[in-house]
Amino acid sequence: MPNILFAEMRQETASFNPFPTDYSMFRQMHGLQIIEKYQGTKTEISGFMDVMAEKEGIQLIPTMSAASVSGGAIPTEDLQRLINEIVTSMAAVASENKIDAVYMCLHGAMAGETEGDPEGLLLDRVRGVVGDVPLVASIDLHAILTDRMLELIDVVVPFHTYPHMDQYETGQRAANCLLKLMDGHVKPETVTVKLPLLVRGDELITATGKYGEAIRMCQEIEASETGLSAGVNIGNAFTDVPELRTNVLIVRDGDRTQAEEDARRIARFMWEHRELFKAELISVEASIDVARQTNGLTVFSDAADATASGASGDSNEILKALLKSDFERKCLVPIVDQPAVEKAIACGEGGRVKLTLGGTLDPGRFTPLELEVDVLRTYDGHFAYENGLPGFGGQVVILRHQNIDILVVERSLFFVGQKVFASHGCEPADYAIVVVKSPNGFRPYYEAIASQICAVDVIGSTSANLNSLPFKNVARPIFPLDEVNLEI
Ligand SMILES: [Zn+2]
Fold this sequence. Notes:
Helix content is about 30%, strand content about 25%. It is α/β, with parallel strands linked by helices. The strands form 4 sheets. The chain has a 9-stranded mixed sheet with strand order 10-20-11-19-12-18-17-14-13. Zinc ion (ZN) binds next to loops.
């Protein structure tokens, strides 16, 4: 009976967020608990397990899963400990069982404070344990595809949708690739074209944008006779590491020449349209004007403080602008602020308290805002996201100042969907303005209830205005930070 070992390590790093993601921020699962918790979720691991369940005689052996909300770089010791524990859990199984194949579920855009390629480091150690067995990895399309990762993975399987809706299908694709490799009939030929290109903006939305056209070319390749995997990894533009760039990835069975031709064709397409891959932002004042002229809900996308991209989540820029304006209808604003939560809890539900909001994690960018608020409700912070996975914001409070409700959490969360609000008693549809901390991932959750969407131009460590960020490590020149002449 073939044994397939699998493990997960995911976090997305924003290098310009000064608040580190330490070991304690990784939610961990071990052994069979991983199967129990992931069964029935809309995740890569669930898709992978469902395909494997259809095959007779395959034994899945889960070892360790570690995942954190996106955030700052991981301190060296914390990263070493995490990788050591994952590798040790895999080595323990490998010492007692023959391992026939490995599936690694990765995000791909992690960065340590001193390590630019944590996934490559993990894979190197995993290879040391399992040797030369078939190894497939699924990755986010924001992954930074490093040379080391490409060397160590037999077939890389990236997401195809942005906003990400195909995690489950990506797990299925990874499982099917691994089964083909285990049969021994395929010889994967991986080709990448490296593009010095950082991308933002609405044209990345795969259902409607130019990037979607490139992805559909990839899907045609995957559907062809020798196609194994194809994608365009755009990197997380805020993970400032040397290999940050856009990569076109093609994996074909045995046909390197065709894979090279495909990769060049799609790379040319991306490069020709590079001017389109810039975000169009509007000022916060103009955004409030849009909301004023809108009857229903206007969603404000605070991409600059997107916890989903790795920002700190303690920006109060939009909150300040709302207070300054004469906007009177109901607004909902999330913020990460542990001291404010503690103060509100000490005051108690129904009380009124003076506290400061914002600027506790990224004080170089945001200055605290003093405010008198009503403490509406308090929560223990446990809830479930739309994909079925648990979220935990530490203690959570809902505060009110005039027409503004403020969801304050102790620990960073994905402020992307509706459930992060609704689970804490705030139904987004009841508000005139809802602030999400997400550049585009929120769209599938809000399109049905939003009358308008504004990409708000405020400061932050994940600003879509890339020229505003202090890049140090990314290889230059790179578009749009620099002018680049390129022949593909
Ligand atoms: Zn992503």
